[in-house]
Design a protein that fits this description.
By secondary structure, the protein is α/β, with parallel strands linked by helices. About 40% of the residues lie in helices and about 10% in strands. A seven-stranded parallel beta sheet has the order 1-8-9-5-4-2-3, sandwiched between helices. Strands 6-7 form a two-stranded antiparallel ribbon.
């Protein structure tokens, strides 16, 4: 395995270098040199895969040659969506604490991964998300109202109230609906990529987001192998934020993170600073070029989950406040991009104040509107599975109708659509 610093993808070499006794094996399972001494390899046998970045911790460009060519309007849009995401997280998290929605997950610390990757993709590229990528949806122009309606599960929720909050999806925007079980989206995404490959003149790719915890699931390994052996047009985007709920990454794996698995499976691989929006943009843009040429890519974006795992979690039980504050202060992707924009003269304190106010107001309005909307008709829970409803479900539907007619005073039917 060759590991080179700078903006390069790691891949398997053919090991053509000279060996002590000369010659390379011709086994069908591996082309490797012969040696005449026993040597076991472990996680310390190779240098760690380097982390690519464009900006330093203070939002300054390290090497001008690596600065991506993103126009002013696009940069400002990326940053505005970051602010919108932060305000949405703040208000909807509080909404759950007030009992207005049942569940929520924040995205603090990972905004750079969302926005940098989304900006580098084509709107036609297919997205398989896990559950902490809502910034990708904002970048694709899904409105705050649509997202809030989903969290409230009202009649304008595309999922008709059947999903947990934050399980978004949009066929119109090429975003496959999120599901809770970890890593199930990985082999599905590879299958979708293989289907794209088989289409004539394909110019689309699939991007699949997952966390380093999900990478421990068997589905992840199967997906890596299928992606490589079938030469699928896919970007496998790992968000390594340091924690799988309460399990730190130090207890999840012994090797060099998730990126080290890429070359072993035959995937083009790069590790990037996920708090550096510009670095993520460059990495994903280059990865997309490879992917649409049927060269699958694994990206490990290093970040830190600043918020709790979800509203069901209290992270103070397994990490210190000082640790959280350090990352929130020193490696904030939002702060880095703001400094970068200010340095270019694209942003200032007045624009910041106005943007925060507008973002907050849009979430509050959307939340107030969502609460006024009725819930989906109760029959929706039995529909949309079969084209023709089978007799068993028809029987259940009739039983429910009779039950509600008899005991309607015990059910808040006025809160639901009646047609």
């Amino acid at each position: 395995m060759a590991l080179r610093a700078g903006f390069t993808f790691v891949k398997l070499n053919s090991l053509r270098q000279a060996t002590r006794n000369g010659g390379t094996s011709e086994f069908p399972g591996a082309k490797a040199p012969y040696v005449n001494e026993i040597k076991f390899l472990n996680e310390n046998s190779y240098d760690p895969i380097p982390i690519y970045r464009v900006m330093d911790s203070n939002g300054r460009i390290i090497d001008n040659r690596e600065e991506p060519n993103i126009d002013k309007e696009s940069l400002i849009n990326i940053y505005r969506n970051m602010i919108q995401l932060n305000q949405m997280d703040k208000i909807l998290y509080e909404s759950q604490r007030q009992g207005r929605i049942s569940f929520y997950m924040t995205n603090y610390g990972e905004e750079g991964i969302h926005m940098g990757s989304a900006a580098a993709l084509s709107p036609r590229d297919l997205v398989f998300a896990q559950y902490r990528e809502v910034g990708v949806l904002l970048h694709r122009a899904i409105t705050v109202s649509e997202l809030v309606n989903q969290c409230y599960g009202n009649c304008e929720d595309p999922g008709k109230g059947r999903q947990m909050p934050v399980h978004y999806g949009s066929k119109q925007h090429n975003i496959v609906t999120i599901s809770s079980p970890l890593a199930t989206q990985l082999p599905q995404a590879v299958g979708a990529a293989y289907a794209l490959k088989r289409m004539p003149n394909n110019d689309r790719c699939v991007i699949c987001y997952f966390g380093e915890g999900a990478a421990s699931e068997g589905d992840a390994h199967a997906a890596f192998n299928f992606a490589a052996t079938l030469d699928c047009p896919i970007i496998l985007m790992c968000r390594n934020n340091g924690y799988a709920i309460s399990t730190p990454s130090s207890e999840q794996y012994r090797g060099d993170g998730i990126a080290a698995r890429g070359p072993a499976f035959g995937l083009h691989t790069i590790r990037v600073d996920g708090t550096d929006t510009l670095a993520v943009y460059r990495a994903v843009a280059s990865a997309r070029d490879l992917a649409i040429s049927n060269k699958p890519v694994l990206i490990e974006a290093m970040s830190y989950r600043v918020g709790h795992h979800s509203t069901s979690d209290d992270s103070s039980a397994y990490r210190s406040v000082e640790e959280i504050q350090k990352w929130a202060k020193d490696e904030s992707p939002v702060q880095k991009l703001r400094i970068y924009l200010e340095g270019k003269g694209y942003w200032d304190a007045e624009a910041e104040t106005q943007c925060v106010k507008e973002a907050r107001d849009s979430v509050v309005r959307a939340m107030q509107d969502a609460e006024k909307k009725k819930l989906p008709h109760w029959k929706e829970m039995l529909e949309d599975v079969y084209y023709d409803m089978p007799p068993k479900l028809q029987k259940q539907m009739k039983q429910m109708e009779k039950h509600l007619e008899k005991y309607q005073e015990h059910y808040p039917l006025n809160k639901y659509l009646n047609e």
